[in-house]
């Protein structure tokens, strides 16, 4: 397979003036007729005329009405073309019903739908399928389905056909078509300049009572983007469609967003509080792409972070505004560490803007998305809020209608602020998570803090240059009063000191407030100081972080030295949980512990070989000790934070439920699940039911609930996904692989539905002690199924290979077991390019 390089970028030699597509839908023989007007682009580099095309059966091709015979290859066609403008016409046949890769035009439960990002349009017809070729599309759909949708505005329709026109030039990856027996949940929105927009969420019959929440989220997003970024919607209609079989979360096609049904359908009975929050965020994310992604798109796929990092940043701002800013920040950092730091510290590490790839689908990663968003946050911190919005205004005016680059993006900030961002750009080009170590001195009222940055080598990048790091710092005096409010230190050197004068006493520093940069902070700190910050820090993130550091330190000592749980940590934690002036959601987060994966990486960084079983055991012991330590408090907290009255998925109610359910998890360790059974029996929403179900499973008391849950929900695919997942995540590590294998034999298991596959095989990796079981059974069951899925759905297979990415941390026996599985995958005949690239990179 061919490697594509950023440095090889060449503009396409032609401009596409307009595209007319006709679809004659039929499950295994859809005809696609394309009429495209090409004009040579003046001064473009000389090149042969090439159109992408894969898995297409060509019927005919003409240029200016004359039949031609192109040269076809696996990836497209070439042919001779006139020197002047010409009309291209082609007819091809495709088979949506047998398209299990879910890329291009495919069928899901009898409905036609498309997924074209990144390179799916070439499976629909011959086209210059690259994001810098932007054109206006007119689409005619002929089919018996009652609902026929495409991008833009509807222009005409009749019995068995509909026509759509999208006035906004767009790349082919934003093309979409949906046809099916669908029901809409309609609404309207009036934009700030008075445009009346028709809104619809389209779903399969039976799902229409799960649309109201998504619709509210859409309207809130539209309003928020006007208020905060001055961005208004630009068509007369905005459609969202829920699709059951979908590789990603959702897709921002112009005017026709297509969603994985798990990311849009919501009801209190079937969705948890976390589901509601995630759905709100994803609806916002896809809507925000209308400006950051669609109106301004990417020149090439190396620039993916241009739209994704910025749009993730925007959706996190939205969630912070709708809910709680500190809770959102803490949750985002937990995710960043769990997914992006893990990636950045392993064989799949790559820059936020990669410089080469084999398969672009493998670069829709936590690094491009989540670290990409952190870079936007750092830029905003460095230039300040006013300059940030000024730069964004300039970005929107200067680049509207463009296929832009990271250079364009940074230039806007340089022009708007007068800053030189040359050094900041290293964040886009250098992979790896910087380690930031801290040393301190205090003499004669002057406090000096010295930072040093080091980034370990990553694949292909041995040496790293220092980056600019915004370090948010506050200082507290020993009474717990803040003597220096949050101040941004701008670090640019490998090693750099900052001084603070006129202090009466040695201060306690609160460093990296709000997690102001995606780095790993190393600071020799005492547990007294951490407990002090947990009690007194005015920065909610660092208050939480102090508790997390205490917990991590205690766990590491339990694992390395066989220490008992740290009672001073338990005292500090109890004080936080007891403090009713603190947000319940914050207290629930404080009760969370570092993940098994986080502890494994920490141990590895300290020069230890992590033992997954010992890590799991230490967490169990600490949870048990916490439950005992808080045994008087837990019943009070559990009772006090029960929510009465009508269910609402808002921040207040979900925070209360999160705290009560965290208490229930600990109570279960004391009562064997008696309270959890009561909650399970009485639950009238999924948050309460699922939390109780998890407790019963973890207590080894889940058989009755497992049967009951299935019986109650067997008609609902999204709830049954939770049923699959929960049994594996909560399994005893000795049983996890066997339970996974048993569940893959369940009649409701399906390889063809990515949600169900992830709910099962993806869940195993969420039980690390089970997945990394010394027997190798976890590795074997995952590899067996990846091998089976690859011929059907390479994209989802390749993504899930990342379960193996941490293998080099482990002992030689486990490494050998994993290597055997990786080699077995690589030896499969006809292995997809997607999976081969991933496993090759991991195996190195
Ligand atoms: N649909 C995916 C997202 O919104 C890819 N663009 O991130
Ligand atoms: Zn996105």
From TrEMBL:
CDD domains associated with the record: M1_APN (cd09600)
Q: Which GO terms describe its biological process?
A: proteolysis
GO MF terms here are: alanyl aminopeptidase activity; metallopeptidase activity; zinc ion binding
Q: Which domain of life is it from?
A: Bacteria
The alphabetized UniProt keywords are: Aminopeptidase, Hydrolase, Metal-binding, Metalloprotease, Protease, Zinc
Output the InterPro entries linked to this UniProt entry. Aminopeptidase_N-like_N, Aminopeptidase_N-like_N_sf, PepN_Ig-like_sf, Peptidase_M1, Peptidase_M1_dom, Peptidase_M1_pepN, Peptidase_M1_pepN_C, Peptidase_M1_pepN_C_sf
Does the keyword section mention Zinc?
yes
Domain Peptidase M1 alanyl aminopeptidase Ig-like fold span(s) in chain numbering: 432-523
| Family indicated by similarity | Belongs to the peptidase M1 family.
Which reaction(s) does the protein catalyse, per the Swiss-Prot or TrEMBL entry? Release of an N-terminal amino acid, Xaa-|-Yaa- from a peptide, amide or arylamide. Xaa is preferably Ala, but may be most amino acids including Pro (slow action). When a terminal hydrophobic residue is followed by a prolyl residue, the two may be released as an intact Xaa-Pro dipeptide
- The Peptidase M1 membrane alanine aminopeptidase domain is annotated at 213-427
Give the source species: Thalassovita litoralis
Task: Work out whether the entry's keyword set contains Metal-binding.
Answer: yes
- Which ranges carry the Aminopeptidase N-like N-terminal domain? 92-174
Cofactor(s) recorded for this entry are: Zn(2+)
Show the Pfam families listed in the entry. Answer: DUF3458 (PF11940), DUF3458_C (PF17432), Peptidase_M1 (PF01433), Peptidase_M1_N (PF17900)
Q: Which residues form the Peptidase M1 alanyl aminopeptidase C-terminal domain?
A: 528-842
Any idea what this protein is called?
Answer: Aminopeptidase N
List, alphabetically, the Gene3D superfamilies matched.
2.60.40.1840, 3.30.2010.30, Neutral Protease Domain 2, Peptidase M1, alanyl aminopeptidase, C-terminal domain, tricorn interacting facor f3 domain
Per the UniProt entry, the Enzyme Commission number(s) are: 3.4.11.2
């Amino acid at each position: 397979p061919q490697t594509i390089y950023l440095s090889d970028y060449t503009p396409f030699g032609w401009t596409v003036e307009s595209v007319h597509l006709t679809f004659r839908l039929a499950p295994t023989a859809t005809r696609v007729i394309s009429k495209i007007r090409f004009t040579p682009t003046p001064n473009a580099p000389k090149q042969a005329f090439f159109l992408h095309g894969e898995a297409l059966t060509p019927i005919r091709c003409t240029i200016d009405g004359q039949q031609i015979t192109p040269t076809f290859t696996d990836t497209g066609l070439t042919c001779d073309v006139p020197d002047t403008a010409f009309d291209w016409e082609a007819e091809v046949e495709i088979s949506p019903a047998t398209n299990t890769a879910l890329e291009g035009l495919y069928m899901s439960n009898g409905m036609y739908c498309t997924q074209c990002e990144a390179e799916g349009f070439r499976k629909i017809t011959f086209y210059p399928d690259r994001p810098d070729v932007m054109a206006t599309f007119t689409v005619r759909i002929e089919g018996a389905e009652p609902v026929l949708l495409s991008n833009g505005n509807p222009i005409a329709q009749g019995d068995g056909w509909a026509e759509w026109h999208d006035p906004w030039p767009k790349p082919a990856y934003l093309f979409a078509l949906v046809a099916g027996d669908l029901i809409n949940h309609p609404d309207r929105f009036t934009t700030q300049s008075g445009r009346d927009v028709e809104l619809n969420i389209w779903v399969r019959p039976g799902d229409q009572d799960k649309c109201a929440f998504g619709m509210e989220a859409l309207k809130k997003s539209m309003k928020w983007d006007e208020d905060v970024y001055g961005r208004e919607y630009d068509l007369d209609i905005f459609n969202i469609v829920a699709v059951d079989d979908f590789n990603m979360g959702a897709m921002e096609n112009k005017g026709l967003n297509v969603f994985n049904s798990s990311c849009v359908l919501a009801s209190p009975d079937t969705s948890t509080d976390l589901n509601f929050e995630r759905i709100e965020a994803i609806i916002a994310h896809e809507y925000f792409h209308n400006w950051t992604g669609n109106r301004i798109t990417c020149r090439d796929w190396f620039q993916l972070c241009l739209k994704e990092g910025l749009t993730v940043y925007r959706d996190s701002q939205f969630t912070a505004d709708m809910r709680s800013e500190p809770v959102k920040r803490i949750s985002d950092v937990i995710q960043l560490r769990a997914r992006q730091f893990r990636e950045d510290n392993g064989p799949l590490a790559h820059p936020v803007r990669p410089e080469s790839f084999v398969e672009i689908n493998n670069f829709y990663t936590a690094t491009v998305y989540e670290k990409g968003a952190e870079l936007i946050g750092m830029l905003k911190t460095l230039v300040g809020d006013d300059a940030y919005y000024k730069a964004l205004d300039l970005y929107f005016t200067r680049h509207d209608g463009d296929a832009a680059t990271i250079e364009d993006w940074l230039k806007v900030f340089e022009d708007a602020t007068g800053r030189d961002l040359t050094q900041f750009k290293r964040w886009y080009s250098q992979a790896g998570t910087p380690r930031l170590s801290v040393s301190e001195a205090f003499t004669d009222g002057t406090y000096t803090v010295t930072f040093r940055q080091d980034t370990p080598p990553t694949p292909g990048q041995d040496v790293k240059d220092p980056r600019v790091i915004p370090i948010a710092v506050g200082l507290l005096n020993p009474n717990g009063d803040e003597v220096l409010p949050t101040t941004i230190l701008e670090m640019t050197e490998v090693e750099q000191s900052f001084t603070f004068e006129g202090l009466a006493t040695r201060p306690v520093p609160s460093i990296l407030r709000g997690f102001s940069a995606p780095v790993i902070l190393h600071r020799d700190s005492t547990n007294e100081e951490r407990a002090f910050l947990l009690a007194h820090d005015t920065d909610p993130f660092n208050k939480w972080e102090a508790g997390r550091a205490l917990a991590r330190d205690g766990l590491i000592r339990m694992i390395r030295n066989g220490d008992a749980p740290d009672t001073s940590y338990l005292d500090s934690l109890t004080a936080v949980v007891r403090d009713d002036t603190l947000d319940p959601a914050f207290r629930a987060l404080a009760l969370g512990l570092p993940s098994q994966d986080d502890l494994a990486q920490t141990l590895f960084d300290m020069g230890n070989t992590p033992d997954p079983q010992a890590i799991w055991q230490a967490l169990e012991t600490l949870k048990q000790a916490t439950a005992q330590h808080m045994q008087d408090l837990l019943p009070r907290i559990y009772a006090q934070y029960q929510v009465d009255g009508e269910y609402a998925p808002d921040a207040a109610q979900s925070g209360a439920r999160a705290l009560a359910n965290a208490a229930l998890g600990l109570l279960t360790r004391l009562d064997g699940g008696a309270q959890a059974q009561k909650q399970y029996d009485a639950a009238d929403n999924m948050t309460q039911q699922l939390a109780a179900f998890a407790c019963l499973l973890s207590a080894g008391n889940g058989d009755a609930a497992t049967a009951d849950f299935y019986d109650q929900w067997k008609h609902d695919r999204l709830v049954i996904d939770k049923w699959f997942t929960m049994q594996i995540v909560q399994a005893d590590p000795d049983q996890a692989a066997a339970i996974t294998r048993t569940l893959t034999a369940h009649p409701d298991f399906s390889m063809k539905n990515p949600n169900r596959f992830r709910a099962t095989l993806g869940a195993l990796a969420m039980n690390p002690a089970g997945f990394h079981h010394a027997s190798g059974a976890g590795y074997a069951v995952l590899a067996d199924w990846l091998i089976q899925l690859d011929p059907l759905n390479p994209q989802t297979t390749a993504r899930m290979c990342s379960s193996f990415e941490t293998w080099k941390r482990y002992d030689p026996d486990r490494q050998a077991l994993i290597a055997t599985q990786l080699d077995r995958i690589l030896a499969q005949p006809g292995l997809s390019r997607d999976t081969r690239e991933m496993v090759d990179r991991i195996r190195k």
